Amino acid sequence: MEAGPGRFHPVDRLARLARAHKLLLLVVAAAAVLRVLVEIAYWPALTFSDSWQYIQLAYANPVVGFGVDRPSGYPLLIHILSIPGRSLATITIVQHLVGLATGITAYALLVRLGIRTWIAAVAAAVILLDSYLVALEQHVMSETFFAFALLVCAALAILYRQSPLLMAASGFLLAAAVTMRVSALFAIPAFVLFLLLKARPLRVLSAAVAGLALPLVAYASLHAVEGHGFGFTEQIGGWALYGRIASIADCRGAAIPRETRPLCQSAAARASGFTPSSYVFSPKSPARREFGTDPPNRAAGLLRDFAIAIIRKHPFQYLDLVASDFGRIFEPGGGGLDPPLLFPRKGSFAWETVIPEKLQRDAYFPGYRRTIREPSGFLLAYQRVFHTPRWLMGIFGLAVILAAVVRFFGRPERSARAAYLLLGGMGLSIVLGAVATVELNLRFLAPAVPLLVCGGVLALRDLAAAASARWPRLSRSTAPVQAPTPP
Length: 487
Fold this sequence. Notes:
By secondary structure, this protein is mostly helical. The chain is built from 22 helices and no strands.
């Protein structure tokens, strides 16, 4: 049947769509080829020490188990993906598809908000071709699903802020992100602030809050029923915060708990070069010597009280520590590069061969052995060039902050729904919160990359529009492209 006047055959519609977004298609094609090469080189999966703990939580109970130092949202996803049968390859392939979906979502959001297609395609390329993100997709790690949940949460809130159902879905996705990595808690203030500014009418605000709060309360309640306390983990808060502040833990004058006195160190001992991770995991750590390698849950509370007392006594040292590491995370060569971000070399140390990871591997995937094949050499060379541009993420973060200041004192009606306030606010909050409570680790920046890229592009567009309005003679062509009206 021939198409009527003004109508297009489905093939014609697809052709028009492909021509309109041809740059995106090229980027996605290159990103897909890259992921196929990674699967070939590191089939069926790469693992880190955390990977086997996730796997144990996924398979130890009929549905999912609760761990002492990580939530169970990602293990639940592993369990669901394993319903047809346990397969590490299934996990990594799905994660690669989710990684592609993250870049496409970022492109669609930017175009929907009026960004030119070629700029949106470049932004998507920063996400889709980032070798650090691709390496994480090949690992059995939570970051890929975590980043996707955060971006889709923000996209729904920005584009459909008048739909109760979709706003509830947005809140639910943020809650789901919390159950995958507790650092998503730091994104909640930015999300709630955006709701208060933009969610209208009241039923929309209520739906979004309910979508966020109800799953979190349900998870924490189930966590308590199982005997782990009302919360998302048992130990991670106290131990991680102790590791963060141990290097400034001068106990003189601090109201620390009596049981934590052995944790006090001299200035020389604190300068011995221990990292936050060393203070948490090393057998030589004062906390490990005092509470053992398998400490009771009560130790986490004592360590939290110890850390808070030190922060209260030395607030400026703590702020300097956090600000310094927060700046370094955007500095090229600023440290914090974690093994799961990297493609391993042949003969590299295999984390899964150590105890207890070896026991977990033999219990759930006895046939698994790390294998590294070609084109691993090409991928290593690729990664030396194409990885997260830390300096660019820093520029995007600064652009978001500056655009927010201009918006406050300038003309908010020129903003594309102030989308960068949510995107950039969530991204920066996650990074800052992780650095403030754990340590400098570039893996904490990875899930924030899609948020910062989208927020930064929108913020730069708004800054250009504000500059054009303020100094029209300097640029008469930087007026923002108006966002199309949603259907």
